[in-house]
């Protein structure tokens, strides 16, 4: 079995734990399992990216870089930077294109706003950070908002609530793709109190 390519999108003012939480989950699941289930990398429009609170991050690939692997899993994190990113048509077009061929499209926190702006939440259910429910309703009028849910699994599109919920979502995906035991081992190594 070949590894799933996991592309984690980065942009300025991305929330750090939104992308680092899933990055850690998928990387730990890969590093501590002989089947090597995931190949995790970051993608952005430019380099470096200045994440929340000034953290400088060098993405593995740029959006249109020919060497960038095609993602099987696309992770779209949130943060204050989503509001600016929502205006970047090139970025939205890239998200749409990757989502069309990806096995799963995932969002963390206000990353749901980017999925909504890209037209990927129409007719689905979603959640987001508790402070952004009204924003999501405005951007996604044809989406059912579930404010009491930490994770919403629509099949090929999975969204999570705010920040740390991205860890739970990533563990949910590990369990869905490779079984509950691999997800439990990953959470145990991370010393994360996961309650599936």
Automatic annotation (TrEMBL):
GO:BP terms for this protein? regulation of DNA-templated transcription
| Pfam families xrefs | DJ-1_PfpI (PF01965)
Q: Domain DJ-1/PfpI, which positions?
A: 6-175
Query: Which Gene3D superfamilies does this UniProt record tie to the protein?
Result: 3.40.50.880
Q: Which InterPro entries match?
A: Class_I_gatase-like (IPR029062), DJ-1/PfpI (IPR002818), INH-QAR (IPR052158)
Protein name according to UniProt: AraC family transcriptional regulator
């Amino acid at each position: 079995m070949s590894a799933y390519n996991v592309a984690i999108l980065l942009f300025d003012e991305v929330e750090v734990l939104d992308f680092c939480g899933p990055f850690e989950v998928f990387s730990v699941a890969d590093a501590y399992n002989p089947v090597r289930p995931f190949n995790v990398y970051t993608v952005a429009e430019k380099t470096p990216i200045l994440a929340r609170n000034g953290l400088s991050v060098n993405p593995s690939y740029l959006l249109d870089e020919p060497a960038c692997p095609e993602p099987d899993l696309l992770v779209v994190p949130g943060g204050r930077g989503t509001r600016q990113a929502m205006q970047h048509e090139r970025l939205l077009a890239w998200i749409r294109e990757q989502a069309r061929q990806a096995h799963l499209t995932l969002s963390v926190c206000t990353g749901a706003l980017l999925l909504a702006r890209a037209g990927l939440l129409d007719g689905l259910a979603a959640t987001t950070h508790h402070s952004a429910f009204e924003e999501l309703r405005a951007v996604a009028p044809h989406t059912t908002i579930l404010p009491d849910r930490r994770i919403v699994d629509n099949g090929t599109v999975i969204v999570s609530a705010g920040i740390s919920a991205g860890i739970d979502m990533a563990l949910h995906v590990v369990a869905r793709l490779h079984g509950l035991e691999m997800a439990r081992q990953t959470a145990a190594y991370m010393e994360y109190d996961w309650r599936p």
